[in-house]
């Protein structure tokens, strides 16, 4: 047995690489066809004002139901879309749909924000601003209603370029949220130097916020620091009433989480808006 282990291990290793690559390639090929096959949809998760309990807006979250692969989770396909560059057309589709959705509701007198995730690759594309302007024009969304969610790490890879792009975005009247805050370098100078309006604290700090004094201190520090810089704070991934109460004490401004609503298919948003009662 000992004699063959080395070879077997190599064999298993090679098989794994081959199967990883072929699965990856398969997914990539399916992803290429997904837009034209109409396999994507967008779910909307409400974000609430913690004090007034009113809806601030909805985060647009992409869903993929592939004809051949079934339901694939964003954490599995977004990285593939990012690596291959497919995120650019896909992300553009999400942005367009999310703006249309917002315009439809604001026309019915339900004026709220829509938060759209923008991947680093999409943001770095030379046509990004032009595409954004076209979408704003075509959908006629109220510009202040749109908020782009950009992760901290995406902001870091080219600070000079990104400051320029961000300033252009702000000039259009569109807002910027720093997503997943706390998971990357959490650079304070980013908060100071970028024209953002909101910070979204990552779920990993919320999970044990009632029991782990370190998490609680981190949340308090982020809130204090953000408020000093006139930034609003959203906490994501709230699953219990206890977490919510604690975040209230920490003076978090807005919350998002399964505790009051999972992401909803767009056809279920209406009844949510009509009831407008979560807590
Ligand atoms: P994210 O932007 O941080 O979005 C929040 C994620 O947390 C969503 O996962 C949401 O469903 C989940 N979530 C919200 N509240 C709770 C909670 O109380 N408990 C738990 N366990 N989860 C909660 P989702 O929809 O699976 O998306 C995962 C990630 O995929 C997103 O993280 C975002 O980075 C990316 N993503 C989703 N849609 C898009 C898109 O249209 N474009 C891009 N570039 N990325 C997207
Ligand atoms: Mg997000
Ligand atoms: Mg996030
Ligand atoms: Mg996250």
What does this structure look like?
51% of the residues lie in helices and 20% in strands. Helix 1 crosses helix 2 and helix 3 (87-107) packs parallel to helix 5 (128-139). It contains 12 helices and 10 strands. Strands 1-2-4-5-6-7-8-9 form an 8-stranded mixed barrel, surrounded by 4 helices. It has 279 residues and is of the alpha/beta class. Ligand C2E is lined by residues 45, 61-62, 73-75, 78, 87, 91, 94, 117, 119, 149, 179-180, 236-239, 256-258, 263.
Helix and strand arrangement:
Elements: H1 2-34, E1 40-49, E2 55-66, E3 70-72, H2 74-84, H3 87-107, E4 113-117, H4 120-124, H5 128-139, E5 146-151, H6 152-156, H7 159-171, E6 175-181, H8 188-193, E7 198-201, H9 203-206, H10 213-228, E8 232-236, H11 241-249, E9 254-256, E10 264-265, H12 269-275
Parallel strand pairs: 2-4, 4-5, 5-6, 6-7, 7-8, 8-9
Antiparallel strand pairs: 1-2, 1-9, 1-10, 2-3
Helix pairs in contact: 1-2, 3-5
The structure holds ligand C2E and magnesium ion (3 copies).
